[in-house]
Each structure stands twice: as structure tokens, then as C-alpha cells.
Design a protein that fits this description.
10 helices, two-stranded parallel ribbon, alpha+beta, about 65% helix, Outer membrane efflux proteins (OEP)
Length: about 450
């Protein structure tokens, strides 16, 4: 059984690393022996709250795992940035074979080691750039979780929407099934006309069609949720977090500030901008040439022209006469300008997302409150009143059918409005980048 939670918030990389292992209940029995008759295996099932679904999603969704690999990749770049250049070791011979000399008597064997020393802080700039890159990758992972988490929540509530539709369709079907049974008896006794019985039968077929359609929608929604959670198609998923109205009245000014501060995609772009600035400083540092220091030792044979042993020390310094990394500096400057423009664009997009999501939330909340305020109960009561009046002969079959359709339409519209409100809440939380308190 999964642990139960009361509220679902925005998931960050820290909460991802702290999620405990969740195991599905073992529902497969042991294999029967050859002396026993094979029994049908029970269908595996899982009961999930919204938080359980999110935790399972973080553990098993492949898109999340792919996004997490980006962090490990950036850590590899950090390791590379810290490394020093490798020294170069060389060995060579020089020999003269004139006047009877050989390699052992007149040759020379020399060893040399060279080390490149980077100047102007190049290594530090590389480390700084790689650090910003790692922070950007972590923020990008959090943003992937934010976006995919919204998809999981939306799919979860779509299943609840389909189940509510199904429950309403089954209620209407069962209710008209009783009405059809009663009126079939009344028709046989001659109390109603055949055309009225036909109308009731047609309405009954319409409600049955709605039940089948709702069943298909519910199964499709469950399939989408199972796919996001990487559950087996044979798994029966029961959802415990209901689709309920929870009134929110957030302050738009605080939402705007929070979105700019905490949205992970904005943080990722800020780190990218800082990384491009570090890359520019690195490109400018390459105007200063690096120094190569070398040392060598040579051994000569007995007939060599010089001393039998020699030491050498050399210093190599490129002369920046033509190439002072002008192209690399220009490219780095353009990269900084591009990153800055991309950050400004993202800020504008986030501000508009928050504004639109907030206004949609207010409109959908107003609609739900209109239904909860009495319209929904009025529609149900009207159907009941007309049904009783029809049984007593005080209403026609057309009045009954009209009341049934009106009640069904109002209840369906309420379910749709409730789902849209919940979806707007999720969209606003996603746009802000954090949970919105009641």
C-alpha cells in the first residue's frame, strides 16, 4: 500500500532525491504445482493518491530519467574543467655512422619532458563556466519535472473526470430503467400511449450510450496515466484523491514575484547567461599565450662530439602577432547577447503565463461557485418533482424527458466546470513554479 499524503506541491530536485522507494502490491500468486489445477491469476491493482502517483512518476518515468542524465553529463564537464594539461614526454636518438662510429659509440640518446602552463586564469574561468553549466542542468531538470508533473496531475484528474461522468451516466440509466419498467406495465394496462413508451425507450438507449462512451473515456484516461507511471496495462489503478472544489483566492502581485524568483526554467536561463559571461572571460584570456616549459637530458657514446652527458632547459612562448583569438571573443560576445535576449524573452513568457492562468482561475472559480450556490440542486430537484408529477398524471412525457435532459446537462456542465477549475489551479501552480496555498 502506498503512503497517504494530504497535499501535493511542486517537486524540486531536492525532493526528488528524498523520495522513498515505492513498491506496488504483489498480486501474483505462486505458480501451481503439476498436481494442482491452474487457478486464474488475480488482476494486480494499486490504490494511488495524487502524491503517490507523483512519487511513482519520479521513480519510473523515462523522460524524468533522461532529464536527470543531463545533470550527470554536466558533472563530467566540471571534472574535465578542473584537470591540468598532461605533460608531454619524448625520447629520441641522434647518431653518426662515419669513421666506424656506431649508435653505442658515437650516438646520442636524449629524454625530454614538457609541461604547458595556462596563464591569465584560463583554468579558473573554465571551472566557473562548468559550474554554471551544472547549475543550469539541475534547474533544467527541475523544470522538466515541473512540466511533466503537471501532465501527471492533469491525467490523474482526467481519470476522475471520466469516473464522475460515468457515475452520472449510470445514475441516469438506472433511473430511466426503473421509469421504463413502470411505464411498460402502465402501457400494457392502457394507461399511456405507445408513443410515450417509445420515447422513454429511446431516452433509455441514449443514457446507455452515454454509459458506454464514459467507460471508454475512463479506460483511455487510465491508460494515459499508466503509461506516464510505467505501469503494466493489466494493472488496475484506483485513485483516492477526489476531484473536489477547493477555493483559492491568491494575490496576483505575489504570484508575479514568486514566478520570477522560483521558476526553474528562468533559473536555468540565468545560469546559462552567467556561463556565457564566464566563457567570454575565458575567450578574452586566450589573448594571453600559454607558456610551455621543458627539460631534457642527453647521453652520448664514447666517441660523441661533445660531453657525454648534457642537460637542457627550454621555454616556449607563442608570439601573439596575428591570432589573438579575435574570432573566439566575438563569438563569445554574441553568445552572451543571445543568452541575455533568451532570458528576457523567458521572463516575458512567464509573466504572461501567470497572468493568463490567474484570470482563467478566477473565471472558472466563479462558474463553479454558481453551480455550487444552488443551480445544481435545483436541476436535480426539478427532475424529481417532474418525475413524481408524471407518475400522478400531472406532467406529460415531454415534460419528463425535458427535465431529465436538463438535469443531466446541468450536472455534466458542473463536472466539466469543476475539472476546468482544478486544471486552472494546476496551470497556475505550474506557471508560478510552486504550490499555491489556500
Amino acid at each position: 500500500m502506498f503512503p497517504q499524503h494530504t497535499r501535493c506541491g511542486v517537486i524540486t530536485i531536492s525532493s526528488f532525491l528524498c523520495i522513498i522507494s515505492i513498491s506496488l502490491p504483489q498480486a501474483w500468486p505462486a505458480a501451481p504445482s503439476v498436481h494442482q489445477a491452474a487457478e486464474p491469476r488475480p488482476t494486480p491493482s494499486a490504490r494511488l493518491s495524487l502524491n503517490d502517483a507523483l512519487a511513482l512518476f519520479l521513480q519510473q518515468n523515462l523522460d524524468v530519467l533522461i532529464a536527470k542524465y543531463g545533470i550527470e553529463y554536466s558533472k563530467g564537464q566540471q571534472i574535465t574543467a578542473r584537470l591540468f594539461p598532461n605533460p608531454v614526454m619524448s625520447i629520441g636518438t641522434l647518431s653518426s655512422y662515419t669513421q666506424g662510429r656506431t649508435l653505442s659509440t658515437g650516438g646520442q640518446l636524449f629524454f625530454q619532458a614538457q609541461q604547458l602552463f595556462e596563464l591569465a586564469g584560463k583554468r579558473g574561468y573554465r571551472i566557473e563556466s562548468a559550474g554554471f553549466g551544472a547549475q543550469s542542468a539541475e534547474a533544467a531538470f527541475e523544470d522538466a519535472v515541473r512540466q511533466l508533473g503537471f501532465t501527471v496531475k492533469d491525467s490523474y484528474y482526467r481519470v476522475q473526470l471520466a469516473q464522475r461522468r460515468l457515475a452520472l451516466a449510470e445514475e441516469n440509466r438506472d433511473r430511466f430503467s426503473r421509469i421504463l419498467e413502470i411505464n411498460t406495465i402502465r402501457f400494457k394496462k392502457g394507461y399511456i400511449a405507445e408513443v410515450d413508451l417509445i420515447r422513454i425507450r429511446l431516452q433509455m438507449v441514449d443514457f446507455q450510450s452515454q454509459v458506454i462512451q464514459s467507460l471508454q473515456e475512463a479506460e483511455s484516461a487510465r491508460g494515459d496515466l499508466r503509461q506516464l507511471l510505467r505501469l503494466s496495462p493489466a494493472m488496475t489503478v484506483e485513485l483516492s484523491t477526489d476531484l473536489e472544489f477547493r477555493r483559492l483566492d491568491p494575490e496576483i502581485a505575489k504570484l508575479r514575484v514568486a514566478a520570477i524568483d522560483v521558476r526553474p526554467d528562468l533559473r536555468s536561463k540565468r545560469f546559462t547567461y552567467s556561463q556565457r559571461e564566464a566563457d567570454l572571460r575565458l575567450a578574452q584570456a586566450y589573448r594571453v599565450p600559454d607558456v610551455t616549459v621543458g627539460a631534457g637530458y642527453a647521453i652520448q657514446g664514447s666517441l660523441g662530439p661533445d660531453n657525454p652527458q648534457q642537460w637542457a632547459l627550454n621555454l616556449g612562448l607563442p608570439v601573439p602577432l596575428f591570432n589573438r583569438n579575435q574570432g573566439g571573443i566575438r563569438q563569445a560576445e554574441v553568445a552572451v547577447q543571445t543568452a541575455e535576449a533568451d532570458l528576457n524573452k523567458a521572463v516575458n513568457v512567464v509573466e504572461n503565463e501567470v497572468e493568463v492562468a490567474y484570470r482563467n482561475l478566477l473565471q472558472s472559480r466563479r462558474l463553479v461557485e454558481a453551480y455550487v450556490g444552488g443551480v445544481l440542486e435545483d436541476a436535480r430537484a426539478t427532475f424529481t418533482i417532474v418525475e413524481r408529477a408524471y407518475e400522478r398524471g400531472g406532467a406529460t412525457i415531454l415534460d419528463l424527458l425535458d427535465a431529465a435532459r436538463t438535469s443531466r446537462t446541468i450536472q455534466q456542465n458542473y463536472i466539466e466546470a469543476l475539472f476546468n477549475y482544478q486544471r486552472n489551479v494546476l496551470q497556475l501552480e505550474s506557471a508560478v513554479g510552486q504550490e499555491i496555498a489556500s
